[in-house]
Amino acid sequence: xxxxxxxxNSIVFYFLIGFGCIFALGIKGVHLFDLDExxxxxxxxxxxxxxDYGQVTFNFEPLYEKxxxxxxxxxxxxxxxxxxxxxxxxxxxxxGLLTLxxxxxxxxxxxxxxxxxxxxxxxxxxxxxxxYFKSGIIDPFFNYFLLLAIYFLSHTMMPSNPWLYxxxxxxxxxxxxxxxxxxVIIPLATLGLSYTWFKSSxxxxxxxxxxxxxxxxxxxxxxIPEIWCNGCTFIKxxxxxxxxxxxxxxxxxxxxxxxxxxxxxxxCFPSALFAIFILKQKRLIQDSYFAANMxxxxxxxxxxxxxxxxxxxxxxxxxYFPITFFAxxxxxxxxxxRQYSHSVMAFLFLVIGVVIGTTLALIPWIMLHxxxxxxxxxxxxxxxxxxxxxxxxxxxxxPGMIYIIGIGIAYSFLLQFRFIPFISNxxxxxxxxxxxxxxxxxxxxxxxxxxxxxxxxxxxxGKNVYLATIGFKSAAPLFYADLPKSxxxxxxxxxxxxxxxxxxxxxxYKKDRAMLKDYLDITYIKSSGCFAFYKRLPKT
Length: 540
Description:
Blueprint: H1 9-24, H2 36-50, E1 57-58, E2 61-62, H3 69-81, H4 85-110, H5 113-125, H6 127-132, H7 139-153, H8 162-178, H9 182-195, H10 205-230, H11 233-247, H12 259-267, H13 271-278, H14 282-287, H15 289-307, H16 320-337, H17 343-368, H18 380-385, H19 398-415, H20 419-449, H21 451-459, E3 466-470, H22 476-481, H23 492-497, E4 504-509, E5 522-528, E6 531-536
Parallel strand pairs: 3-4
Antiparallel strand pairs: 1-2, 4-6, 5-6
């Protein structure tokens, strides 16, 4: 790798194809997970079943939490692949390839083709971005639109170019249609903060106005028909939900203020470690407006989601871009400028990598000897889930052992200042570890958490029954039982004691079985893991 060697576009294309195959590996290996994956997939299933693509619904009732753009993409995928795990997750696989091609182009323009290639590889092989491109959640597309918006706005101080205005406006508009006002708040906050570091180049007022007008036009294509048909209910309910979400934790997602810092550090390891070292160099953000915007983006995301009451792993996913960007800059400098004076960084790389690998390797041993520690678990639902008989063996240590060995080899290359083998090694090790984790560990995790419930729901598919959860929220009964609109549950009390016209099955946590003890005509079927299953038959 050197400045004199030109990277052919065909090589980048082959790498993109390779990453696409890697993202596809195991994409159907486990069922969709509650809540987000199943929740979004159920919204899309209902769009397909009703044929109404303008109204977002859940349980065939209007839902005001999310705009519809991602569900349109998912519906297109499901029409092609079917209403299943692949149909739900394929849009993000496509988004992964689109994202990698884009960061390559941006990196190539920012510095050179090798910078773009390295950024693409770091992003594709980081733990959390890699997982998200195998998922069925909204964030990969939302983050992609925000990256495009910031990139286009970073260039609008250049001589007038209508494509830059249009690109930024379309990106923000698609972001608004995907997840809402954060598509405006994050880019504008980023640009405002970066101005304090890079005052010589700032987005013009004209370009901002034009971009926001275009974004408003994109959003209006859906919002105006929605208001015409249903009034302003969506806007009112949307703001009520998100104000609640930002001010207080919901769905038990109450975490300490430093939650996202830990998630990003370990989820983007080792890129997060490299980024910390490069961010000490103020020269970087003084030399490039785009670099200043990347640092501002990192700060904005961390501040916003530190303050938000509800903390979920993927809320800070937009930070993956600046973290891997600065990690790329650090490694790029090491290769071309021969700055080999980071013994502390090398030591931390080894120690943290060994800790991660050891944790993965210990999981099978811990689960094989759970009788030693299960009595210490206080949460009864978790304790019940751990009672599931899952076949663990010492072969399940392979992902962790491979990771430890790979980190050791990469560390030896680092000590020799051989950065190309170092980068290639840890990128390959990350991919292998993730692939093996999905093959050997993820199905066993699902067996503890939700498989019993999903198997029960799938057994009800095609049957003329009611199916409902008691005491907790899940989209599994709707999605995996493929319940039609005529079987929607409007009133749980009617199912419990009303004159039902067909059999009704109930799913609840075993610890909550007392909730049904007073209903004499509801009979117990079985228990599995943390779940208990009951039925009620109509009176003849």
